[in-house]
Specification:
This protein has 457 residues and is an alpha/beta fold. The chain has 13 helices and 23 strands. The strands form six sheets. The chain has an eight-stranded mixed beta sheet with strand order 11-10-9-8-12-13-15-20, sandwiched between helices. A seven-stranded antiparallel beta sheet has the order 1-7-6-5-4-3-2. The radius of gyration is 23 Å and the shape is globular.
Length: 457
């Protein structure tokens, strides 16, 4: 039976690393972004007899995997063993070995057997071994990175944070990131919460939100809103996009302002669309708003937080750039055409793409929750924006695919109208001045390295 062993030295105590693994969200943080994995059921934590059921995609199929935990020793080890899933045998021992007071060795030892015995090993053994090495390299680095980022605020008490848009790409990952860091997360959801659940009910369309449900919170992160990536921005679509952001923000902030003891901090999503199309001009948070639907939307969106600000709440308006993750969003949509060799420059290719990796965005939000000097507009982008041509060539190089094609601007405008022009042919070269002043430590400043991290290359 093959055995795969992967080790990593972590700059944190074995107890701290074990605690990180024990908290809700750890599995979500450990799944590589290029893997399509969904958690279906959980019973218990890591203790003996606890069980986790996931669904993972293998080619065109989804496979159910049930793992049962055993051999639990608090702070030192646990095992998960497949009782249903794609392997004939799978037994994964997790060990947390102290090497110093604030250091440990993380060891993953996996005994596995593929279906169909020797034939399965012959046909798929090399691929499975390579996939495991790739996955555990990612898991160990993410564990180390997350622990370092949470350790920066070790001297501060953990927070109670409510998140709207918690089922979205950023919100889902933020919930897991904060939970594994020891924070208490409450999701603001559009369905009536179960009795005793941590969820908070609201319905922005009906104006439903009970400010009493927000009592006891330290902060709110407001991320909800309809996607702007509709095929065409008809008048109706524009109204719905605006309503989903502005009305919900008004509702939330008016309720926060009415509270006798409101949360100290509100982090509200905005976007670098605020700046409009700026060509080569380098803009920071002091830049004037641009023109067009996105710029006007962002102005209204940020203005809707005024009631919270007047109530003495520290408001951070995060102007978020292109979020890079292969788990979803723009990058995931680009992967299929690029892998097929159809990737190419859009329009002139000179328009700037100001981007940020998903992991850096999560850390920016954590910083915004704790750093009382951060307030008002904050550009959530890397200090290294690139042009569309640079982005295209870099992604093609990482995927080892040609990028010889190009899509003329008039064709894009003809196919998708104002939306295509605003999202694909316009751009802004944005500088994160406030984050740089706060000495924020970006994990991913270089586009090539960020893409290789997200794609497991």
């Amino acid at each position: 039976m093959p055995r795969a062993t992967f080790t990593a030295d972590i700059a944190a105590s074995a107890r701290d690393v074990f605690a990180w693994y024990s908290r809700p969200g750890a599995l979500e943080r450990l799944v590589p972004p290029w893997e399509d994995v969904r958690v279906l059921e959980r019973s218990g934590g890591l203790e003996d007899r606890a069980q986790t059921v996931i669904s993972l995609r293998k080619g065109p199929l989804r496979v159910r995997w049930t793992a049962l935990h055993s051999d639990y020793v608090e702070g030192r080890q646990f095992v998960d063993e497949q009782v249903e899933g794609p392997f004939a045998v799978w037994r994964h021992m997790h060990r947390f070995i102290p090497t110093a007071e604030s250091e440990c060795r993380l060891e993953d030892e996996i005994d596995y057997e593929l279906p169909f015995g020797a034939l399965g090993q012959l046909l798929a053994g090399a691929r499975v071994g390579s996939d495991l090495e790739r996955a555990f390299s990612f898991r160990h680095r993410r564990t180390a990175d997350d622990l370092v980022r949470h350790a920066k605020f070790r001297d501060r008490p953990p927070l109670a944070v409510a998140i709207s848009g918690a089922s979205g790409l950023v919100g889902h990952n933020l919930s897991a990131f904060l939970s594994t860091g020891g924070h208490r997360v409450h999701r603001i959801v559009r369905r009536q919460a179960d009795s005793g659940a941590a969820d908070i009910y609201w319905n922005p369309r009906l104006g439903d939100l009970n400010s009493d449900d927000l009592e006891g919170l330290d902060a709110v992160v407001h991320l909800s809103g309809r996607s702007i990536a509709s095929w065409r921005w008809t008048a109706k679509v524009k109204r719905e996009i605006e309503y989903s952001r502005v009305a919900s923000t008004h509702l939330l902030c008016e309720n926060l302002a009415r509270m006798a003891k409101p949360p100290r901090t509100l982090v509200c999503a905005s976007a670098i669309g605020y700046y409009g199309d700026r060509g080569d001009e380098l803009v920071d948070e002091s830049g004037a708003p641009g023109f067009g639907f996105l710029a006007e939307l962002c102005e209204k969106w940020e203005a809707a937080t005024e009631a919270a600000r007047e109530a003495g709440i520290r408001v951070v308006n995060l102007r978020i750039g292109l979020v890079l993750t292969s788990a979803g969003g723009v990058l995931r949509q680009m992967l299929t055409p690029f892998r097929l060799g159809f990737g190419g420059v859009l329009g002139t290719g000179r328009q700037y793409m100001s981007w940020i990796s998903l992991d850096d965005l999560l850390a920016v939000i954590l910083c915004a929750l704790y750093d009382h000097e951060l307030a008002g507009p904050v550009n959530a982008v890397t200090p290294a924006p690139v042009t569309n041509r640079e982005f295209t060539k870099t992604l093609g190089r990482v995927l080892r695919r040609p990028t010889l094609l190009s899509v003329p601007g008039p064709v894009l405008r003809g196919l998708s109208g104002e939306m295509g022009s605003a999202l694909f042919l316009q751009g802004a070269r944005v500088r994160p001045a406030k984050l740089e002043d706060a000495a924020f430590d970006f994990l991913h400043r270089d586009l090539d390295a960020a893409l290789r991290w997200e794609l497991g290359r």
